[in-house]
Specification:
The chain is α+β, with helices and mostly antiparallel strands. The chain has four helices and ten strands, in the order αββββββββββααα. The longest helix has 16 residues. The relative contact order is 0.14. Pfam families: Cupin_1.
């Protein structure tokens, strides 16, 4: 009897270990279910460690901010686990413009500094707060949201997502960083031609 129980336990143990993780094989194409799994024989402890968040991002840019992602593309060990993270560096005056993550809810933790953050609900109600060190805010999946440095010193936050690939669409670039004709943008945003062309020139759009 004990021999049979041991064999049953071994069988269940072997089958469960095979599904413990699915380190991404990034050379193949991804899909909404994730990437194909690398062979467990080719997986090491390093696949479950990501060191890219240790260094501050370069905030010398138009938004005076940097986002360093640890999504599945950078951290293949996240594949299939339903989580990811990123580092957010905001220089004084820095801003992460209105954007959305179509595939994930985001939670932001302020490591240091002061950050004004908020989102807009589907009923067009804004929810805004100024967060200090140690405080947290959540941004529901798919809703437009933003972060702004609210102090005169650099700010750092760590954000987490309930998806290994949350997706990202920045509103300004979606409107003015593409080849959609200026006439169509003017018609759909009620902006005049000069404003649209100025924003296109700043954000790299054409048309």
């Amino acid at each position: 009897m004990l021999h049979i129980l041991f064999l049953v336990a071994l069988l269940f143990s072997s089958s469960s270990h095979a599904a413990d993780f699915c380190v991404a094989k990034l050379r193949g194409a991804g899909n909404p279910s994730g990437y194909a799994c690398r062979s467990p024989a080719n997986v090491t402890a390093d696949d479950f460690v990501f060191k890219g968040l240790a260094a501050a991002g370069n905030t010398t840019n138009i938004i005076s901010a940097a986002v360093t992602p640890a999504f599945v593309q950078q951290f293949p060990g996240l594949n299939g686990l339903g989580i990811s993270t990123a580092r957010l560096d905001l220089a004084p005056g820095g801003v992460v413009p209105m954007h959305t993550h179509p595939a994930a809810t985001e939670i932001l933790y302020v490591v240091y500094g002061k950050i004004t953050a908020g989102f807009i609900s589907s009923a067009n109600t804004p929810y805004v707060n100024t967060l200090k060190t140690g405080e947290v805010m959540v941004f529901p999946q798919g809703l437009l949201h933003f972060q702004i440095n609210a102090g005169g010193k650099p700010a750092l936050a760590i954000v987490s997502f309930n998806s290994p690939e949350p997706g990202l669409q920045i509103l300004d670039f979606a409107l003015f960083g593409n080849s959609l004709s200026s006439a169509l943008i003017e018609k759909t945003t009620f902006l005049d031609d000069a404003q649209v062309k100025k924003l296109k020139s700043v954000l790299g759009g054409t048309g």
